Amino acid sequence: MAALEEEFTLSAVPLGAGPDGLLGVEQCDKTDQFLITDGGRTVILYKVSDQKPLGSWSVKQGQVITCPAVCNFQTGEYIVVHDSKVLRLWTNEDVNLDKVFKATLSAEVYRIHSIPGTEPLVLFKEGAVRGLEALLAEPQQKIETVISDEEVINMEITLLMYKSLTQVS
C-alpha cells in the first residue's frame, strides 16, 4: 500500500525541455533511488529519502546523451546511450564514463526499457527491439527496419509496445 508523504522537487526543469531539460527519471534497483538524465551530458543517481545526489557521471565534451539512463535490475549496472549509437554500462564504483564498457551499435537507439525481473530491452528508432544480452553479444548485428519512414515512435506507442513485449515473456 502506498503512503502519502511530503513532496519535494528533484529538479525544477521539466521533462523533455530540449537540450537544457531532462531526458528522463528512471527507478534504480534500490527502492528510493532514481537516475536523472539531463538533455545534455549528465546522469545523476539521486536518493529520495536523503534528498541528495549519490553520484554523477558525464560523457565527454562534444558527446550528447540521447536517451534516458536506466538500471539493469538483473546486474545493478546502469546503461546509457550517447550520440544515438554508443551504449555504455557502468556501476557506482566507476568514476569516468569514458573508461567504462562501451559498445558501438549498428543502428540508432530510441530508448532502453528496464523493469525488475526482466532483461533490459533496447528499442531502435526504426522500430526493432533487442534484448540487451543479445545486443552486447553482437553489437554490430543488422537491425531491421520495422516502421516506415512516415511513421514515428512516440512515448504512448513505446509504452504499449513495451507492455506487450513484457506480457509475452
Q: Could you please describe the fold and organization of this structure?
A:
- A four-stranded antiparallel beta sheet has the order 1-2-3-4, with no helix packed on it.
- Mean pLDDT is about 85; it is low at about 10-15 and about 155-169.
- The chain has helices at about 130-135, 155-169; strands spanning about 20-25, 35-40, 40-45, 50-60, 65-70, 80, 85-90, 100-105, 110-115, 120-125, 130.
- Strand 2 (about 35-40) and strand 3 (about 40-45) form a beta hairpin.
- The chain has a single domain, classed as Methylamine Dehydrogenase, Chain H (7 Propeller).
- The chain is globular, with a radius of gyration of 16 Å.
- The two termini are about 25 Å apart.
- It is mainly beta.
- It has two helices and eleven strands.
- Helices cover about 10% and strands about 35% of the residues.
- This is Nucleolar protein 11.
- One of its GO terms (biological process) is maturation of SSU-rRNA.
- It comes from Pipistrellus kuhlii (Kuhl's pipistrelle).
- InterPro entries: NOL11 (IPR042859), NOL11_N (IPR012584), WD40_repeat_dom_sf (IPR036322).
- GO terms for molecular function: RNA binding.
